[in-house]
Amino acid sequence: MKENDLVSVYVGTAINARYLEAALAQANIACLMRNNLDEANHAGFGGPGTDDSCQIFVELQDYEAAEKLIFDYENSKKE
């Protein structure tokens, strides 16, 4: 994957991001998860966790499929 081919499909907690990362992999959608809190901790700037500490990126051609998967997951949490 080239960085300029990636689009953000999710911003949220690390727990949800890890679940979605696994769900995307099961659907054969390659993704990149970036955990800003972990990155800050490794650099020595760690602080309390936030609800938007993780971000998931997918390739542009997988965007619609990934959005549908994430939308379905978000809606299943509300039921």
Folded structure, characterized:
The chain has 79 residues and is an alpha+beta fold. The protein is 47% helix and 23% strand. The protein has a three-stranded antiparallel β-sheet.
What is the typical, i.e. mean, pLDDT? 83
Order of helices and strands: EHEHEH
Give unreliable regions as ranges.
none
SS field, number of helical segments: 3
Q: State the helicity in percent bands.
A: 40-55%
Tell me about the largest β-sheet.
3 strands, antiparallel
In total, how many beta strands?
A: 3
In which order are the strands of the major sheet placed? 1-3-2
Q: Using only CA atoms, what is the Rg?
A: 13 Å
Q: Give the structural class.
A: alpha+beta
End-to-end separation in angstroms reads 35 Å
The dominant shape is globular
Percent of residues in beta strands: 15-25%
Features:
79 residues; alpha+beta; 3 strands; 47% helix
Brief summary:
The chain is an alpha+beta fold and 79 residues long. It is 47% helix and 23% strand.
Topology:
Layout: E1 6-12, H1 14-26, E2 31-35, H2 36-43, E3 54-59, H3 63-78
Antiparallel strand pairs: 1-3, 2-3
